[in-house]
């Protein structure tokens, strides 16, 4: 299931250095992406049904893998993931080294963030 990548991590009883070194919003989005609770169409279809499930690039269902590996809107930033692109998404979100790469990627863009709603006039 969605937790499979996170289940591969070594359990720790104290805060990881990465938590202290990465800004809370970025780290939070990274953890949400690992556990399947990022604001994607995949998540919204189950937990926020009034939100759309399509991707901004036009795919019917926005999912973690397509955001990280195929979304044309993020192509200019995808170089950050190059060293990990040949791994499957489970590996990408499930290893410490690759997760740091994902955090670096998230730092540069707005992926896995809740979409802002237009405020009524």
Mean pLDDT metric: 75
Radius of gyration: 14 Å
Structural class: mainly alpha
Topology as H/E string? HHHHHHH
The main sheet comes to: none
**How many β-strand runs?**
0
Large-scale geometry: globular
Q: Segments where pLDDT lies below 50 for 5+ residues?
A: none
Q: What is the number of helical segments per DSSP (H or I, 4+ residues)? A: 7
Please report which band the strand proportion falls in: under 5%, 5-15%, 15-25%, 25-35%, 35-45% or over 45%: under 5%
Proportion in helices: 40-55%
Distance separating the two termini: 41 Å
Question: What can you tell me about this protein's structure?
Answer:
By secondary structure, the chain is mostly helical. It has helices at 4-7, 17-21, 24-35, 41-47, 64-69, 89-94, 96-107.
Entry summary:
With 121 residues, this protein is mainly α. It is built from seven helices and no strands. The protein has helices spanning 4-7, 17-21, 24-35, 41-47, 64-69, 89-94, 96-107.
């Amino acid at each position: 299931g969605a937790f499979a990548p996170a289940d591969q991590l070594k359990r720790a009883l104290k805060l990881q250095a990465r938590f202290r070194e990465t800004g809370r919003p970025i780290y939070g989005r990274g953890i949400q992406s690992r556990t399947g609770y990022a604001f994607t169409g995949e998540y919204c279809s189950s937990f926020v049904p009034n939100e759309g499930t399509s991707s901004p690039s036009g795919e019917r269902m926005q999912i973690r893998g397509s955001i990280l590996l195929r979304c044309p809107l993020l192509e200019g930033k995808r170089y950050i993931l190059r060293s990990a692109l040949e791994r499957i998404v489970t590996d990408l979100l499930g290893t410490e080294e690759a997760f740091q790469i994902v955090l670096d990627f998230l730092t540069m863009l707005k992926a896995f963030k809740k979409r802002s709603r237009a405020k009524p006039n």
